[in-house]
From TrEMBL:
Species of the source: Acinetobacter wuhouensis
Pfam families documented for this protein: GFA
The keyword Glycosyltransferase belongs to this UniProt entry's keyword annotation: no
Every CENP-V/GFA domain range: 1-108
GO MF annotations, alphabetized: carbon-sulfur lyase activity; metal ion binding
Name of this chain's protein: GFA family protein
Keyword Metal-binding: yes
Similarity comment: family membership: Belongs to the Gfa family.
Keywords carried by this UniProt record: Lyase, Metal-binding, Zinc
Source superkingdom: Bacteria
Length: 137
């Protein structure tokens, strides 16, 4: 699949691991997007940037980093620093699969009370996510 940022300065190819959409309610995602970010897991090592002169990678935690276009600011991915796990902004894909399904909300204990999703999802707390990606904490 192909994708890009809003302005088209940063483009990529990727293979999706599945068609499951995940929502993150952490304070960084909410601040970065003024809402939630919706992501899709990628096959390990499949995210390849075709145009990356304007790609910036931000060191967002001890174990994770975020990639974005430094021209338009589009958030493109989050991945572990060892790149064993990566997800992409679901809306950065040029052509989204028609069978996408929202099935997971992470950092659910950080979610503000003023919004919620109607469909049933698996929910993980901040502690659950930290244990998954950084088991030494």
């Amino acid at each position: 699949m192909k994708g890009q940022c809003v302005c088209g300065a940063t483009t990529f190819s990727v293979m999706l691991k599945n068609h499951d959409v995940h929502v993150c309610h952490c304070s960084i995602c909410r601040r970065q997007t003024s809402g939630v970010i919706m992501t899709i897991d990628t096959e390990q090592g499949s995210l390849v940037f075709d145009q990356q002169a304007h790609l910036t990678v931000y060191n967002s935690s001890e174990w994770g980093e975020r990639g974005f276009c430094n021209v338009c600011g589009t958030n493109l991915f989050w991945r572990t620093k060892d790149q064993s796990y990566c997800n992409i902004n679901a809306f950065a894909l040029n052509d989204s699969p028609e069978d996408l399904k929202l099935n997971l909300e992470i950092y659910i204990d950080n979610k503000p009370q003023f919004y919620s999703f109607d469909n049933e999802t698996k929910k993980m707390t901040e502690a659950d996510v930290i244990a998954l990606f950084n088991p030494t904490e």
